[in-house]
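Action item from last meeting closed. Structure (534 res):
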């Protein structure tokens, strides 16, 4: 009994335990399921948020891509639209051109029809004239036949009367007429030759006079000074500098004489060389504009101005050949043409003289039916040998001919340059024209003054004489040739040697040159120490 009770109690206990265990398991399971559901809900919510975020990002990307595609589409559309507009504009222009061409073609067709009608009328008129000529020819033939018959009858009667045949009578008549014709021909030829000589002389004078009358020229003016205008006396004081140091520096750098007197608002630049005067004038202009006037600045400005003058020489040459209509000239020859502006011959400006000769040659060649352009070219270049910068022992005509040959000028031009002073034989019709026009330009009233040329020549010889001494760097003749100012190299010439040098130069001037009055020889030795801060 106890055993059964024990078994029953055990079974009851086990059942109760099972029931309680199941309930506990159910509670635990429910709790886990609830937590799982909550986690699942949280995960779902996170997934939904992520999905929403991804959706928004995809939508933004889609919008950006849409906007990009839209922009590209619009750009492509605009480009195509612009291209279509351009093509449409070109088509309209082409249509207008075709319309214009069609109008021109119609006008040409109208002109051709008009010409065709005129030709037809002329053809009808010619046909009528030809018919009339044929009728006249028939009448003439008929009359010629009648005349031949009458002449034959008369010849037969004459032969019968004279007892000579027609051939014999013809021979006698020919001999008589031949002698008479020879006499008359000789007299006629003599008259023609005399008339030709008179006519040729008259025509030649006519050509020369017409050429001179058709050329406007200027008179030579002896000018050795330039006037520089200033605004006030204060500026004049700056130009002079303390104790005149600026004036001395400018004179030493340019080789001219600066005259500052009581003339209001003006400074006079004196010098025989026009290039030096122009350099001094332009340098003064720049210094006054700049306001900084002192010896170092003066030297700097003068150096720059000298370089600018070289550029101006090229510009003058180019402007001259353009004005005269001369093309294809070598650059070196153009530069020499520009140098003529600063050279004179017996007081006559060389560039003005060459331009004048070029115009005279062109006019005379045109009157004679020759090549006017070639004659003008030869006239401009005929004195090119005078401006060759290097010293040469050849006459300027031969030197100019060699330069023209060097720079591949026309053979007729080369011969005209070399022969205009009879140094070589003339082989072209242009050569005597250049010679004549050179004489016309140089010998006309007011063209030249020999006194000016000899004066400048004396001053140049004076400078060259002093430049040959060792140690001399620069040499300028000033005061109308009454003073010779010489700059020497301080490294090679001492103070004692400077005094001896001035005496030697003055002695050589007395022995080798002729001059009025006396010449003051001034030797200037300046010591400079130069260093650079780096």
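Sequence:
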């Amino acid at each position: 009994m106890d055993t059964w009770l024990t078994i029953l109690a055990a079974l009851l206990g086990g059942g109760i335990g099972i029931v309680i265990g199941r309930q506990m398991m159910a509670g635990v399971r429910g709790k886990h399921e609830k937590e799982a559901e909550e986690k699942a809900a949280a995960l779902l919510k996170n997934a939904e948020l992520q999905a929403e975020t991804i959706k928004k990002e995809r939508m933004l990307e889609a919008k950006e891509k849409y906007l990009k595609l839209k922009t590209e589409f619009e750009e492509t559309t605009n480009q195509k639209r612009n291209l279509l507009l351009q093509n449409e504009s070109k088509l309209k222009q082409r249509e207008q051109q075709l319309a214009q061409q069609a109008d021109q073609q119609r006008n040409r067709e109208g002109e051709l029809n008009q010409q065709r009608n005129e030709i037809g009328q002329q053809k009808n008129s010619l046909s009528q004239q030809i018919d009339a000529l044929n009728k006249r020819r028939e009448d003439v033939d008929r009359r010629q036949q009648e005349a031949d018959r009458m002449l034959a009858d008369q010849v037969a009667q004459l032969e019968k009367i004279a007892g000579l045949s027609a051939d014999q009578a013809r021979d006698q008549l020919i001999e008589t007429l031949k002698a008479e014709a020879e006499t008359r021909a000789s007299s006629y030829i003599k008259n023609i030759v005399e008339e030709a000589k008179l006519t040729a002389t008259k025509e030649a004078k006519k050509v020369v006079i017409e050429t001179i009358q058709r050329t406007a020229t200027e008179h030579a003016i002896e000018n050795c000074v330039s006037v520089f205008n200033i605004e006030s006396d204060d500026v004049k004081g700056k130009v002079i500098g303390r104790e005149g140091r600026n004036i001395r520096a400018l004179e030493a750098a340019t080789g001219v004489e600066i005259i500052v007197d009581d003339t209001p608002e003006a400074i006079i630049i004196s010098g025989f060389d026009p290039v030096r005067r122009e350099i001094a004038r332009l340098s003064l202009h720049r210094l006054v504009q700049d306001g900084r006037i002192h010896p170092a600045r003066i030297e700097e400005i003068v150096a720059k101005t000298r370089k600018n003058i070289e550029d101006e020489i090229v510009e003058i040459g180019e402007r001259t050949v353009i004005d005269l209509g001369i093309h294809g000239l070598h650059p070196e020859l153009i530069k020499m043409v520009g140098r003529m502006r600063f050279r004179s011959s017996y007081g006559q400006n060389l560039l003005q003289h060459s331009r004048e000769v070029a115009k005279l040659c062109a006019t005379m060649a045109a009157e004679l039916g020759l090549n006017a352009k070639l004659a003008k070219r030869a006239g401009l270049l005929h004195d090119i040998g005078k401006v060759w910068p290097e010293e040469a022992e050849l006459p300027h005509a031969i030197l100019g001919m060699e330069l023209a040959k060097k720079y591949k000028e026309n053979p007729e031009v080369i011969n005209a340059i070399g022969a205009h002073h009879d140094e070589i034989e003339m082989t072209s019709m242009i050569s005597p024209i250049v010679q004549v026009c050179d004489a016309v330009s140089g010998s006309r009233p007011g063209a030249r003054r020999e006194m000016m040329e000899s004066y400048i020549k004396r001053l140049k010889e004076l400078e060259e004489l002093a430049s040959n001494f060792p140690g001399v760097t620069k040499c300028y003749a000033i005061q109308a040739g009454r003073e010779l100012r010489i700059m020497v190299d301080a490294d090679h010439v001492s103070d004692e040697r400077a005094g001896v040098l001035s005496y030697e130069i003055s002695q050589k001037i007395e022995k080798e040159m002729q001059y009025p009055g006396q010449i003051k020889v001034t030797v200037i030795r300046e010591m400079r120490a130069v260093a650079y801060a780096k």
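Note appended to the action item: The CA atoms of residues 398 and 423 lie 7 Å apart.
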